[in-house]
Specification:
The protein is mainly alpha-helical. The protein contains 2 helices and no strands. Keywords: Membrane, Transmembrane, Transmembrane helix.
Length: about 60
């Protein structure tokens, strides 16, 4: 009976699998993570700082 490839991995097994990532992709991952972090920061900041942003519906409720 063949075992499934992703049956029950421990954290250490998942960390070891990161060694199979080509080194050329690591800078791309860093840039992508930084861009996602900046986008998240920007949207959360706009929710808190913008007083004209409507977060709930206004008017007649049906």
């Amino acid at each position: 009976m063949p075992k499934e490839e992703h049956a029950a991995h421990t954290i250490s097994q998942r960390l070891r699998s990161l060694k199979r990532v080509p080194p050329e992709l690591i800078p791309l991952g860093v840039v992508l993570a930084a861009a996602l972090g900046a986008a998240g920061y920007s949207i959360v900041r706009s929710f808190y700082r913008d007083g004209t942003l409507r977060l709930t519906r206004r008017g007649k409720q049906e």
